[in-house]
């Protein structure tokens, strides 16, 4: 049977169809369900092996990007989402979904939430919306999502509030030491971006593009891997012959059952 993924649909999110395509290419199947329907059908989360929170502009980014969606995750679905993540099933948040997972406390994890949230995503340092391709490199982490992506990948970004910021230097050191940093923005040839634009599109601390939880099953990232599935999409990028991002979805679907690692291998197009 093909692994089943639940794609949340909040008012304003707009990458749900892209994610269905990514999941199908990677060997799984997805269902897009609005939050209102999930609220009326208690227990639906248990029917799925993977959870995806897509990008877009949930609730029009009122009160800050991802803030109201995070409130839904904390209040309306707190028990179900927490149980889903605690079971070890894969959870993925992309762009606005990443913002929501961080502000809901699911990333980088409960140990970074006390006595207050110590990690957030805020306005790009350059003060403008960034919409273009970036290079990413993986960092040593427990994430099941990035296994086999040692060569990195290219993905587009489309955000105005993607800068990872922390409460103190001590929090930054804990992120590094605990392996929560999964992906970093990079320059040509995978060289460190060093915090500089344009390689780092938002001024994010340590060039952070993605974070995971301690167990490695929850991943959030600002770039859009669902829009970097086919080699032809990156054909014009210097030094990039393969899109690479499909592997991330294959890994996630492979984590739906017992154990980690790769499941059904998707087709490269």
Judging from the principal axes of the Cα atoms, what is the shape? Answer: globular
What is the number of helical segments per DSSP (H or I, 4+ residues)?
Answer: 7
Q: How can the largest sheet be summarized?
A: 9 strands, mixed
- Give the termini separation: 23 Å
Using only CA atoms, what is the Rg? 17 Å
* Helix content estimate: 10-25%
Strand order of the largest sheet: 2-1-3-4-11-10-9-6-7
CATH architecture: 3-Layer(aba) Sandwich
In round numbers, the mean pLDDT is: 91
- The SSE order reads EHEHEHHEHEEEEHEEEH
The multimeric state of the shown protein is: single chain
Detail the topology: elements first, then pairings:
Blueprint: E1 4-9, H1 16-25, E2 29-34, H2 35-40, E3 50-53, H3 67-75, H4 78-86, E4 91-94, H5 96-104, E5 119-122, E6 130-138, E7 153-159, E8 163-166, H6 169-177, E9 181-186, E10 208-212, E11 218-221, H7 246-254
Parallel strand pairs: 1-2, 1-3, 3-4, 4-11
Antiparallel strand pairs: 5-8, 6-7, 6-9, 9-10, 10-11
Explain what the structure shows:
The chain is α/β, with parallel strands linked by helices. It has a single domain (4-254), classed as 3-Layer(aba) Sandwich (Rossmann fold), CATH 3.40.50. Helices cover 23% and strands 22% of the residues. The chain has helices at residues 16-25, 35-40, 67-75, 78-86, 96-104, 169-177, 246-254, and strands at residues 4-9, 29-34, 50-53, 91-94, 119-122, 130-138, 153-159, 163-166, 181-186, 208-212, 218-221. The chain has a nine-stranded mixed sheet with strand order 2-1-3-4-11-10-9-6-7, with helices on both faces. The protein has a two-stranded antiparallel sheet with strand order 5-8. Helix 3 crosses helix 5. The chain is globular and about 45 Å long. The model is unreliable at 258-269 (pLDDT under 50).
